[in-house]
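seq:
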Amino acid sequence: MNASFHILQRIKQCSKLRLSIQGKSLHAFVIKTGVDQHHLPLYPNALIDMYGKCGHLKDAVKLFDEMPDRDLVSWASIFTAHNQANFPRQTLFLFSRMLSRDGLQPDHFIFASLVKASACLSASKLGQQLHAQFVLSRFSDDDVVKSSLVDFYAKCGLPDQASKVFHSIVSKNVVSWTSLVYGYARIGRKNEALELLHDMPCKNVQSWTALISGFVQGGHSTESFRLFNQLRSEGIDIEEPFVLSSLIVGSSSLAMLELGKQLHKLVLGFGYESNLYVSNALIDMYAKCSDVLSAEKIFGSLRKKDVVSWTSIIVGMAQHGRANEALSLYDDMTKAGSRPNEVTFTGLIYACSHVGLVIKGRQIFESMITDYGLSPSLQHYTCLVDLYSRAGRIEEAEKVLNTMPFEPDEAAWAALLSACSSRAGKNETGVRIANHLLQLGVEDPSTCVLMSKIYASATMWESVSTVRRLMTAMESKKKPGYSCVDLGKENEVFYAGETMQHPMKNEIVDLLNDLDSEMRKRGYKPDTSLVLHDMGEEEKERQLFWHSERLAVAYGMLKSARGAPIRIIKNLRVCGDCHTVLKLVCGIVGREIVVRDANRFHRFKDGVCSCRDFW
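struct:
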């Protein structure tokens, strides 16, 4: 008995210290001696917990599946293993098995694991159902589950609900406090977040991290930088890896390369370059700020690479149109024994679709299911539709839409519609899809452009008018399109339209007129079909002339060093006419123009674009 207890304690110690090799040796000893036969399910539960915490999910699952009898501790251990491996969907899937197969009802440990999985997925409805179950259970006073619920509501953007749960906790700890601070920061409620932080009795660096990361993840990156500078000026020591990685994420969301470089210098100054969280954030930042070479350099310098490192560089390569490099990196990733996740596969299928590797893309999609046990999301199926559509395999693309286990959304149908609009002989299919989208309800103006083009080519002028009316109604609701040009120490934002108020308006217009004259000599003819307003051709051309990306490019050429790349971020999809213009302009002036729009990166150089004219 004492020997068995001693072995059990050693397994738990291996779990605590993440000693997988020693843990496996103890597992072998347990099997060899047969001691587990007398203490079921104590040993399997401890071993599942050990394998999960050591990152050996397959071993944990194998052991769990072999158990003839499972108790609540067994289920809690396997849930925790999946959560720690970042597979929250599988945790929730297994919960239904627990109810149906073993007929067990959740205890406080199970509730905490399920709420955590819901928080990771921002699954608000499911989390609220679990909350209701928890309140009706005999564990309703458990502060650990309540703390998990505070985190869940905060991550779902519901801080007021989080606050209600928070105030019911008897023993509030730093986790529940910081979760609530994060929740208010995430939706931009700065005053409440700062007030909470002020009242917090146990502030530490994680508290400040929660505040700053909340602002960043909620899209309030500018506020996070303002706060960081304020705290530093007040002498508060927050130069911590997680704070810096959050700020780096903020600079990437703003696509501000110079700001990202300054943060990189801070990282080097504090000696955090070997921190994996920071390095992964830097890879992602450089890729999103269009400096892929720097992203590659940092990735290559990593001694240890995790799934985030591999995925960041793979997705970065895919978004920049470097599909072959993305696929080669995936091969290296699997050889290195790193397990790809859902985001990895999204990047890989996306990469294949942009170079016409249909068979390879399909193989990767199937490998995701069969080799890694991952369930494809709507985004994966949309990528698959895009893969077939770009290759002109319209029927196969439509078959995927009609058979996938999700209701196709506007983006999925638009991927197919885009292919129909650019291919002869597919007008009938295009009209059918456009009709379906009209019934579905359209929210994206670029989808309206595609629909109008399809209807016009089918001479369905009444339908064209319907789409135009829809577009007019959208004008009052949609966010205005803008383009921001990054000039290093300054950024300038431009909105479309002749009403532009800018001190350099005359110089910008003169340059655009000169470029327009040169483009027309080279055969440029404005594509006025993209203007869905009822106006004359000349006025339509003026509308295109004043698009924000053109203003931003002209300003960038006037203000930046001769020959330097011009970097632009655009909040909407670049229109087809501006895409043609930027290809011509980069050839005329001999400069590289990089545009990050709502869909992807466009690298214009020597008269061509990295997207191969399909985006």
